[in-house]
Amino acid sequence: MPKRILEGLVVSDKGDKTVVVKVERTVLHPRLKKTVRVSKRYHAHDEANDFKAGEKIRIIECAPKSKLKTWEVLPREAN
């Protein structure tokens, strides 16, 4: 099965080797039939602490690295 790749905005870089990425997507509301934005926050592994809050990055699925981290940041040249 291919690994998922998501694109989002770094909202926090406070943790060591960890960034929190907010990924937004649009969904059709089941009753109102209106398009609404839904967001979710993912903890991603950033080995070199390269990325800072406010940057747009891509993350890829990986094996669990900790209780919350199951995503890795793709390197800058891949972004």
TrEMBL record:
Taxonomic superkingdom: Bacteria
Any one cellular-component term (Gene Ontology): cytosolic small ribosomal subunit
Stored Gene3D superfamilies: Nucleic acid-binding proteins
UniProt keyword terms in alphabetical order: Ribonucleoprotein, Ribosomal protein, RNA-binding, rRNA-binding
InterPro entries registered for this protein in UniProt: NA-bd_OB-fold, Ribosomal_uS17, Ribosomal_uS17_bact/chlr
GO BP: translation
MF terms in GO: rRNA binding; structural constituent of ribosome
NCBIfam families: PRK05610.1, uS17_bact
Subunit (UniProt): Part of the 30S ribosomal subunit.
Protein family according to the UniProt entry: Belongs to the universal ribosomal protein uS17 family.
Entry function: One of the primary rRNA binding proteins, it binds specifically to the 5'-end of 16S ribosomal RNA.
Protein name as annotated: Small ribosomal subunit protein uS17
Organism: Asticcacaulis benevestitus DSM 16100 = ATCC BAA-896
